[in-house]
Write a structure and sequence with these properties.
Largest interface: A-B, 23 and 24 residues
Largest sheet of chain A: 6 strands, mixed
Strand content of chain B: over 45%
Shape of chain A: globular
Structural class of chain A: mainly beta
Distance between the termini of chain A: 41 Å
Helix content of chain B: under 10%
Oligomer: heterodimer
Order of helices and strands of chain B: EEEEEEEEEEE
Distance between the termini of chain B: 33 Å
Number of strands of chain A: 11
Number of helices of chain A: 0
Radius of gyration of chain A: 13 Å
Shape of chain B: globular
Radius of gyration of chain B: 13 Å
């Protein structure tokens, strides 16, 4: 079945440093979604990318969908302590509406 | 609050017992999803409904798991003869129809099987 892989698994950064997480799918995706899960919380939708090469920005967050629609990235500029959490990418997988990656856990050291 | 709600929030049960969880989706959403999440992992798809119809069930899901959405509103997930490996967070989510719509997650039910 379809697999979604994310790297790195963990990332520790100093507050103010940048952060990037990468997502790769074993198959071409019609769209990709990103979710954030705070410690002890539930996943919360951040954004959806649909078009090949699409780039979307939300304040300090920049999301990119690869040209082949098999990979994506999330970049956070100048991290803050409020960015702490696990970031998941997810894409449709056959009969499964969404297949989630294992996520990247971000820790921000003040 | 009109978000997704789940009940109970925590459940401790002994191995071999049956448990049932409830999920109330956002009222306008006709799709409802069940996921399982363990520590350090992403949500693992279990099953989903469109209105009252169960459209897909994970092939990895044991026959001990069953879900219903009888009137197309709330849903229940039952686990029969629980095992220690069933210990996890069970998440429910809802959305409009179609894979292009974001899913809204509930707070989850944490199951501990002793």
């Amino acid at each position: 079945g379809q697999q979604v892989m994310q790297i790195p698994q963990y990332q520790h950064v100093q507050e103010g440093e940048d952060f990037t997480t990468y997502c790769n799918s074993s198959t071409t995706l019609s769209n990709i979604q990103w979710y954030k899960q705070r410690p002890g919380g539930h996943p919360v939708f951040l954004i959806q990318l649909v078009k090949s090469g699409e780039v979307k920005k939300q304040k300090r967050l920049t999301f990119q969908f690869g040209e082949a629609k098999k990979n994506s990235s999330l970049h956070i500029t100048a991290t803050q302590t409020t960015d702490v959490g696990t970031y998941f990418c997810a894409g449709p997988g056959g009969n499964t509406p969404l297949v989630f990656g294992k996520g990247t856990r971000l820790s921000v050291i003040a | 609050d009109t978000g997704v709600s789940q009940d109970p929030r925590h459940k401790i049960t002994k191995r071999g017992q049956n448990v049932t969880f409830r999920c109330d989706p956002i009222s306008e959403h006709n799709r409802l999803y069940w996921y399982r999440q363990t520590l350090g992992q992403g949500p693992e798809f279990l099953t989903y409904f469109q209105n009252e119809a169960q459209l897909e069930k994970s092939r990895l899901l044991s026959d001990r798991f069953s879900a219903e959405r009888p009137k197309g509103s709330f849903s229940t997930l039952e686990i029969q003869r629980t095992e220690q490996g069933d210990s996890a967070m069970y998440l429910c989510a809802s959305s409009y129809s179609g894979s292009s719509y974001e899913q809204y997650f509930g707070p989850g039910t944490r199951l501990t099987v002793t």
